[in-house]
Amino acid sequence: MADGGVRAPRNAKAIAFPARRRGLRDRAVLIASRVGASLLALALAAATAPALAQQDAKVFQFALENGLQVTVVPDHRAPVVTRMLLYRVGAADDPPGLSGLADFIQQAALNAGNATSSNNGARNCAFTTHDYTAFCQQIGKDRLRAVMSADADRLANLALSDRNVRDGADAVLADRRARVDGNPQALLREQMEAALFLSHPYGRPVTGWPEEVRHIGRIEAQAFYDRHYPPNNAYLVVAGDVTPDEARADAEATYGKLTAHELHPRAEFAQPPRLGETRLTVLRDDVRMPLLLRLYRVASYTEARPGEAEALQVLAQLLGGDPTSALYRELVIRRKLATETRAFYEGYARDDGEFGIFARAKPGVRPEVLQQAVDGIVSAAMQTVPRMADLERAKTQLVADAVYLHDDQISLASAYGQSLAIGLTAQDVEDWPNRIRAVSAEEVRKVAAGDVILREAVTGYLLPATQ
Amino acid sequence: MRHFHREGTKHTKWCGNSCSREVRARSAKGITAEAQRRREIAERLSAPWRLCGWLAFGATNFIIAGADFVVKWLFEAERCTKALIAALSCLAILTSSSAFALDVHTVNLAKGQQVWYVSDRSLPVIAMSAAIPAGSAYDPTGKPGLAAFAAALLDQGAGRLNADAFQTALANRAIRLSVSCSRDWLIVSLLTLTDNAKDAFHLLGQALSQPRFDADSVARTKEQILSRMTEDGARPDRVAADAFYGAFFHDHPYAHPISGNRAAVSAITAGDLKHFASAHWSGSGVRIAVSGDIDGPGLTVLLKSAFGRLALRNPPAIPTAMHEGGAGVRDVPVPGPKSVAAFGLPGVLSADRDYTAAYVANFILAGSLSSILAGRDRSSFDSEVSMQLITDRKAGFVLGEMTSQPSVMRKAITLLRGTLRDYAQDGLAQAQLDDAKAALTGAFPLAFDSDVATATHLNEYQRAGLGIDYVRKRNALISAVTLDQVKRAAKRLFNPSRLTVTIAEGQPPSRQSSAIDPQNR
To answer: Looking at the domain A278-464, which fold is it?
Structure first.
């Protein structure tokens, strides 16, 4: 343990670790040690973080008798504990015709039992992705026990009545109205993802299509909940002012009482081939400035060959990570075509990831002109390796992100949680900075040429309706 | 390990000067509505900790916070946004149980400068939050938006470095510098690895004392501000907030939008910016909070390189807002399917004897999912409501926001009035007060869970004029509040006949969207 590694489970597991994946995904699990995880570096050490290397930065992992996988990340700087519980069920698991069901369950679970008390000041959050559902809670250590058992109870015994299912569906719809319908950029991205992923469920919005959300009934919701929410389908990440032994005792006293169920394999979906670029234009009354968004379907951290996902991460930083990136320098500073630019890689997914480029046009600039300029920058990245100074700066930024992320408990817990929930390991999280450092200029050029290609892309314009 | 030491039971008598905060510290505009909060949450929870230049990168968070669509965050404080933040900044320690206090130290710089710091060597990072009294309230007559414009240029070149060279110098060392502007303050946040701290503080020093305001940077930033303004014109939360401040503050310097208006910003010149910076980016009245891998002597050296070259010039006085409010409802049309109402009531200044009670009263009304408004919200408003107690330096007020569909907004406002009336008249039960105290005191340590959070919150207390012992006393203040005091404060605050409401009224969709091939348009 002195090397800051990940401790193996100390308990024999009564129930085997749930079978994670079938088919292609077994490959992903096998290569898990080679693939990456987010923004995180315990073993960052040497070059940039001597103080970090000196401290006992450790992660502890064990399983409860009921199969719940526990990861403890001690951080004793403040008397605060963050717990994040992640279920390996997400919007991709929504049954056909019932999109939004996983999100609905998350909202129902979050709202259950919250109505009577402000919970000793605990800060709660919950979110649903296509791959997993997470509940987190941050609380002062002196209040931990008071809140923890109630919380475990709430998640374990979600009671769904006709009434609260109807209310829950209304809440999901209201939430959609607030977040998506009134946000043209969100609508654009929803349309583009539907086009990007073709029949794969990543193309369905996490919040669901409203027509389908209205079809959610108590029976379907209960069946979904019963099937996907046993403790052996979950990961618990505890970060904060807690020792592994305390965390174990707390977890056993609360989540340990939940009963394991047999797990059904998750559905596997084809990621159909894309034979050509898709283009779409969304016109809206509530849009003022034309905006260009391009999304590419690319390899995720779970699918990528060694170094590929990391190279995509570096490429995103080089193209549009900050005001020293290629897009900003070229489009905003030099050619004065845009007021904002950005590139991003979202690689934490069980299936394909996304690479995105965003630009907001300056008044009077046509989106086609902006797009040509973007295409020019991307094709330059395909043909030419990045300058060494730019590459080093991009890597420095990413590696520092991993250190900064350690400053924030919720971010820390999410970094481990999101990786575990999609089948990566804690070791992947810790190795990430080293893998980023190892990315070469030629690898960056290679992913630009091989992954960020128009056949795998949707190009979207968001324009004022009056234009 | 940050030094938290335990304190015994303590009963402090009622003390007037208590919690206060500046919610909009990190916002470029009035009410920090949904989007701002979500952006913060997304920043906090999604990938890395990024403090990109707010202007250049802020809005892209819509897209980037895939959070909003790919991942969907739902904080418990969904409908009581600011109250949550308030709960975190408005700390308390429960008298009955053990109490924690942070070891906050001071460094003596120049006269009139206040420095608090917490030394914590466990991570190789240093976080600073610093405020200079150079917010939008200091905009000269006829030049609204000047302070925010100047703030946006703070990281756009200094000394011998032009904007790109300055950004490159920051990026090469992974230094996160972000700047924002509130009504009272220019707020600078800095996050750096210890190894790069010297460069980080030196670069900030250059930015503050030798800003360049190059013509191309000024032009580019102006485009960005105007572009943002255009976008915001279609956002009901922004429209409602701007209208509210205008109605509520009349001719007070708080009345105009922080970012000004299109005509004024278009007319601002590099000369105006230079003049503003040299007059207002002064060392006097600066409030600095630091947390992280540093000790007192080391910090003194760093701070001298950042702030030591600033002239010590007192800012002009801002008058206290005397006649807040303009009761009634005002409408402003906006496109889109949503309506947003901003509303408010005269409140209390942080020095007011009713302040802590008022804060607790607001928390019970609107501060959590178990709050009275949240309950109403669920059952009848068909809308989202949030309310917060704001204490700017020269005005205390209650500020709320309600999001609804246009067809039911009027009804929701009526319900809101009824809820306020009931609360002010019938008061509340002891159990509600006890629950609120448990929540407020329990949330205390959460405000110090990171170096960034510690620096941010300490700086909030400094801006509110609180003393360095505030963190230690906070518990007793909250715990000592009695039911009668809270009832009295509720009666004083929540008088529906004084309510000022501005509604950004959404329009029913006409031809909202269509998908066609741009080639065939």
So the answer is: Cytochrome Bc1 Complex; Chain A, domain 1 (3.30.830)
